[in-house]
């Protein structure tokens, strides 16, 4: 029996694929889409984020215990500007340690917020982030080793936007919350009393935790009221493990205008869009005809990831409700014509690669399968080694371009690299068109991929960068490495 088939069969025999918990109380559906408050973060002091405990009503009449950044659940949208310093005070009002990882930002290792940069309970840290990268949609979340999955799932995450005065963005919708709308997409599971349910052991750790309800900005299947015209959605897959294949139920096409690290060279017409955990995309949708629509996602079974059942990611499955869109907001759309190209697109600037590195994502090292079968957390790794905070796995030099080849066995993984953005060269041996993907910081590894990467900021042994699977249960179980840049 092939190894992949054995794993798929084992998972199906031990647990229902991917889902933990079922809603027993009446869920709250169809409410107004919440818009996270916008925080302008500049050089002045007083910009503060505190990790706090809170309660949040996902379910009618029930209050779930949650975490958030300066609010009960999730955090404000931070807006920073290229060429300026963003000063922040990060406070920890929880009993457990946290970090503040700036996912996608090009900052030195000691500002990156990886597992080495722990913030103890009751402590504050001051950070000054020098922003020098193109406009884009990024995010921030806590990143302590072994607890990232639980903390992000419960709400320690938020969007981060970079604006760039060098780019002509006047051709794009830009009224935040009106025709420029953030969508933080997460899946949730609930207990009978409406509290959040989370499991990072056994098969939940093997497959990655997946809930059976979809929340957007903290609300289950909400309604967005949008103006008649072009609307910009900033999409973030902030789920621990679920991959979304997004489309509109009426079959309408839309245009992708940005990916992880910023604008594409020109809009790309699509009928559906795949987002793996931690990936972002910006899309323009035309609502000028006034017709409402539903944003839905295919419910892709876990065993299909990586082609275990021969179907790949884009096949089958019933639709999950994500968001209902109703046309007729109180303010008009600011843009009516689709732009043909973007002057501020993030174009790759790499020298010739000087070396090649290989990274193999390993499932179930040692007694990992036995631990998973009996409800424990399995051990994963990269290149045969589970993550060790005291070990530096790679040493790189600033300004040198490299090719990284990443491969996966048993199932697919979203692979994230801290401290930079990269170009995807190939996936499964097939060349990737840069115009379709743009610059990235997460790449989907179905079997193998090659990326072109360079680092322009330092990272020391005391505060290294990370590379890891962004299925958070895999990361927490050891599928992560760390590296220095000097």
TrEMBL record:
<dbReference type="InterPro" id="IPR011706">
    <property type="entry name" value="Cu-oxidase_C"/>
</dbReference>
<protein>
    <submittedName>
        <fullName>Multicopper oxidase domain-containing protein</fullName>
    </submittedName>
</protein>
<dbReference type="InterPro" id="IPR045087">
    <property type="entry name" value="Cu-oxidase_fam"/>
</dbReference>
<feature type="domain" description="Plastocyanin-like">
    <location>
        <begin position="56"/>
        <end position="165"/>
    </location>
</feature>
<dbReference type="Pfam" id="PF07732">
    <property type="entry name" value="Cu-oxidase_3"/>
</dbReference>
<keyword id="KW-0479">Metal-binding</keyword>
<dbReference type="InterPro" id="IPR002355">
    <property type="entry name" value="Cu_oxidase_Cu_BS"/>
</dbReference>
<feature type="domain" description="Plastocyanin-like">
    <location>
        <begin position="376"/>
        <end position="485"/>
    </location>
</feature>
<dbReference type="InterPro" id="IPR011707">
    <property type="entry name" value="Cu-oxidase-like_N"/>
</dbReference>
<dbReference type="Pfam" id="PF07731">
    <property type="entry name" value="Cu-oxidase_2"/>
</dbReference>
<keyword id="KW-0560">Oxidoreductase</keyword>
């Amino acid at each position: 029996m092939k190894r992949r088939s054995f794993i798929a069969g084992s998972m199906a025999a031990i647990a229902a694929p991917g889902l933990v918990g079922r809603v027993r109380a009446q869920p709250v559906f169809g409410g107004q889409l919440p818009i996270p408050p916008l925080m302008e973060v500049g050089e002045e002091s007083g910009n503060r984020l505190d990790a706090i405990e809170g309660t949040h009503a996902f379910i009618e009449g029930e209050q779930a215990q949650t975490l958030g950044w300066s609010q009960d659940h999730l955090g404000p949208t931070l807006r920073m500007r290229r060429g300026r310093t963003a000063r922040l005070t990060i406070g920890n009002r929880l009993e457990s340690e946290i970090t503040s990882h700036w996912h996608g930002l090009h900052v030195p290792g000691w500002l990156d917020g990886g597992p080495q940069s722990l913030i103890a309970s009751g402590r504050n840290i001051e950070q000054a982030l020098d922003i020098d990268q193109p406009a884009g949609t990024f995010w921030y979340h806590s990143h302590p080793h072994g607890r990232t999955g639980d903390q992000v799932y419960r709400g320690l995450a938020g969007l981060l936007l970079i604006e760039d005065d060098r780019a002509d963005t006047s051709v794009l919708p830009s009224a935040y919350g009106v025709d420029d709308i953030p969508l933080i997409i997460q899946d949730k599971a609930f207990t009978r009393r409406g509290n959040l349910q989370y499991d990072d052991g056994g098969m939940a750790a093997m497959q990655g935790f997946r809930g059976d309800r979809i929340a957007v900005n903290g609300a289950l299947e909400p309604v967005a009221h949008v103006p008649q015209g072009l609307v910009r959605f900033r999409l973030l897959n902030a789920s621990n493990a679920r991959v979304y294949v997004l489309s509109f139920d009426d079959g309408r096409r839309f245009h992708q205008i940005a990916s992880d690290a910023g604008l594409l060279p020109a809009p790309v017409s699509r009928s559906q869009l795949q987002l793996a955990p931690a990936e972002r995309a910006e899309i323009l949708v035309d609502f000028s005809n006034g017709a409402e629509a539903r944003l839905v996602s295919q419910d892709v079974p876990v065993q299909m990831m990586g082609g275990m059942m021969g179907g790949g990611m884009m096949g089958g499955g019933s639709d999950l409700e994500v968001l209902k869109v109703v046309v007729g907001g109180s303010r008009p759309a600011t843009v009516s014509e689709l732009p043909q190209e973007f002057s501020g697109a993030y174009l790759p600037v790499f020298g010739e690669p000087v070396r090649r590195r290989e990274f193999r994502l390993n499932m179930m090292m040692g007694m990992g399968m036995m631990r998973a079968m009996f409800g424990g957390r399995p051990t994963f790794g990269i290149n045969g080694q589970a993550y060790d905070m005291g070990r530096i796995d790679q040493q790189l030099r600033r300004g040198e371009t490299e090719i990284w080849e990443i491969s996966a066995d048993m199932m697919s993984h979203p692979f994230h690299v801290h401290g930079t953005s990269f170009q995807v060269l190939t996936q499964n041996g097939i060349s990737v068109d840069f115009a379709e993907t743009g610059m990235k910081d997460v790449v989907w590894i179905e079997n193998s991929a090659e990326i072109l990467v360079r680092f322009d900021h330092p990272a020391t042994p005391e505060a290294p960068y990370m590379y890891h699977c962004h299925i958070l249960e895999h990361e927490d179980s050891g599928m992560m490495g760390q590296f220095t840049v000097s």
